[in-house]
Hints:
single chain, alpha+beta, Threonyl-tRNA Synthetase, Chain A, domain 2, Rossmann fold, 4 domains, 5-stranded antiparallel sheet, 23 strands, about 20% strand, disordered N terminus, disordered C terminus
Amino acid sequence: MPINIKRRLSTVNNLRIAGLLFGKRGLYGSAHTNVDEVGAVGQIASASGEGESLGGLTGASATRSDDRPYVENLDPWKDRIPRRWRSKIERLWKKVRTLYTLIVMLQVEKEMPLVYRLQRIRMGRDFTPMERMQIKEDETRKRLNIFHKERARRGEKILVNSLANLGFCNRTVSEKGHARVLSVISFDRVDFSPLIYRYHVNARKLPYKVSIMDLYQDGVCTTLSASVEHPVRAKIEQVESFVTGLWYEIEIAATLGIPNLCRFSDLLPLVPESASPLAFIVGYSENKRVQIRSLEEMPHFLGGGQTQGGKSNEMHVIACTIIARNKPEDVRFVMIDLKFNGIELQRYEGIPHLVNDVVKVPSGVAGTPAEGIEILRWLRDEGNRRGQLLKSEGAQNLKAWNRKHRTRKMPYIVCISDELALLRLDPTHGNEAYNLIREISSTARAAGIHLVTFTQSSNKRVIDEMIKVNFPGRICFSVPDASSSILFVGDGSAINLMPAGRARFKHGTDNFLVQTPLIQASEITEIINNATQGKTTAKLSKAAVTPEEVIEWAIDNNNSSLAVTDVFAKFNTRIEKAAVNKLLQDMEGATFQIGDRFYQVLPGAGNRPRVVVKIDDSTVSAARNLQNGTQNTNVSAPVVTAIAPDETPADVTECLKCGALTDVNPCEYCGSPIAKEQEK
């Protein structure tokens, strides 16, 4: 019989009264009580904490019942139960049996939903294997439906926000200058399936001056695809020749390996601060691994592919990554763009990173073959000039020169060229341009000059063996045939790459597919504006801080002091304060080479911080022996010279404990007192 669930508690409480009334012999004191039924009551009572009160219901004298009716038993307990209560107790007993059966059935297979367990109770039998399989499929379908429904709602919010960021909304500006959005694009219908989500634009509530055809542009779909990280298509609804609506379709089919789309703004913060100044973002590879490479190790970079493959986008990614992370005194640019007199790169005119030393190209951006030749000539001459300076000082490359001459640093120079074929195949300047590119790419690496060039031509006159040898870093976007792919990356793996931005990257032993990041025009404009104002826009991530990096910073910017608070204030985005203290403790007494000089970190004392001191070249070996725990008796202790201004005071005294030069008593570096004889 059906049981009212709300009466369960009252039913169990009534068992306590029944136990007190029944005593120790069972129902009415009869010896024919059903042991199973009585045991069930005892289990329920025990679960409710009333086992002692119902102990009489599980008496040992109870035996299994038969169909015989209960007989009157001459038992003293009988007189304790009034006759008018007996029918009520029998009805209560049936309810208890049904409640116990329900509890037992509900406890079996708890993983099965409650609806199906109740259905099994109503049927009075268990489910067959086919019914169980159907139940499992139904539950899986329901869970997937809920999952896709929530995911479709999140996709709707992303689409609305992305369209608003693209300007498809109505805004008003308050008196205080705060923008307020009045109306945005909305969707009146959302259909979803495991493979595709479809959103119907509400054409009746479009913002002012926004039409269906504005939302149908290819650039809009590309931006939306980058926002949702899945391909987005737009489909027009037409009745005869009239446009009546628009659907956005998001392909949700899972893709293993490389993501289909990624954004520049998401990858720029992942470039560590310790990376090379010429580091740039390549994109995502297998399993969403971020690939970052540097022009300093290539040293020249060549990109190719057919139209609409992603070459210009990657060119802007390289330029914006370097500009966002460096100041003009660290990296400078010259640019050659022969597409319609500089239609791609003219937006960079005016930034302080551009070189203005080229006489005939003062803006730093060449738009004609003649101006491109002038820039290449200047690069050749500048490389020769720098080579003579490096040779005179015995420096092997620009990095060694900058470490040795901190007050006369020379910046890296990056030449970005768009459409190399127009310059190489020019009837007037083609041969000279080829010779200049070959000379610069083969000799200017040590001088800090690096070439980055892109072309869509697969002509062997443009990309011959000499160019391929001098440009070891190469990236190839989608090409139509195997010969073009072989020309760029040496195999046919770049044929018909999809989607847009997918490319084959090759440098040395690295040869992998990559999805290059999408950079929008607004992001380029923001980086250019910040560069004009002298700001860096890269939010750098946490990365390992090396002792050499800390020492170099302390020498240049912190008067050779290594206070924990100062080091943490500089590198707090990459290291915790406790790790800073541990790093400085490990650096104490160790010898480090910065350029062609050797430095040592002396311990602090009291409130005085640790300090970096320079070690004379003649005692470097002795310092290394002391660092390794070995001491050579034939070699005197290392002579340590503190980094000080050029004019050393006459009363400076050498501390006998740490070897530093100081004019303070006690020593300002180790804290040990200086004897009077030593002062004299």
